[in-house]
């Protein structure tokens, strides 16, 4: 009898199995959110970067030298970051490089613009890159460093801008402050959106992981219950047969037979996780089921002739089905011997082109099936469940005139 066992979700084997099942689903949503954010940042950075680059060209033409160096430091990492975000490779690294490069540009801005006339009415080209740099920090860094960059870059721009303007009159200062406030608000919005989307993605992935773990736990419990039923049925069949044989043993040969049956029961229990002892699944003639039933009855010390009615058109029965039907009928015989003393015991097998039917009847006092305790598996597991496992069905009728167990299996159509 083959039994499949499933470990708990914490076991390494189950974790590997769940990994194959989920295909990396433990962070599926997080990866999708990060990918969408990279693409959105790439397009937004391309638009703002183009606007800043156009303004930077005029500055380079008017004041070459330091402006050209700052442009190279700022726009080359920006272009690489945009390509990396679109492709989805090294996006975090290139975003971190651009954010650091932009901070260097801000720090060098006062020295690069020293002694040059400043345009008070228009923002310099570095202004258009502040929001790009804060967004790049959201892609590249964790939350604490994101907050530092969101505050540092706008404030640093305000300082270097006022320094470039050589501390202008209050109305110009107000304009610079408003620019800084706008940059801070935009950085806060981007920071909040990034945090919210990532938190939602983590929650979804955790919920999915919990659902998969719950399914694995339920599957493990179901497998354990099936294994318990299978082993209990195996023990019930083998041990009961051995006990009946031992009880009826009166000669050395019968005692040796009882010992052999007990040894076989222990062997089958030890090999409960293997199907090697079950034999092949090659089709067998229906009459072989009758022979198997008669042989098993003889092990109980019951001389039984199985009444066979096998039609010539009856096709062979799969070996697995034949063994299941024979074992189920054997259990019905064991029940009749144990509870009805084998009074009026008779077995009939009928087979035709439609299927196979085995009837086991006795003339005992009968029993109330609803009164059978749930932990008694002689009928539930050894007969009903075993036949159902091979797509068969069982009918049990019991009253004061006796008990009849009918086992029916039909060929697939």
UniProtKB/TrEMBL annotation:
The UniProt entry, under SUPFAM superfamilies, shows: ATPase domain of HSP90 chaperone/DNA topoisomerase II/histidine kinase (SSF55874)
Q: From which domain of life does this come? A: Bacteria
**Segments passing through the bilayer:** 36-54, 66-90, 97-118, 148-165, 171-197
Keyword list (alphabetical) reads: Kinase, Membrane, Transferase, Transmembrane, Transmembrane helix
Which Pfam families does UniProt cross-reference here? HATPase_c
Boundaries of each Histidine kinase/HSP90-like ATPase domain copy? 323-409
Q: Name one GO molecular function term.
A: kinase activity
Recorded protein name is Signal transduction histidine kinase
Q: Which organism is it from?
A: Microbacterium invictum
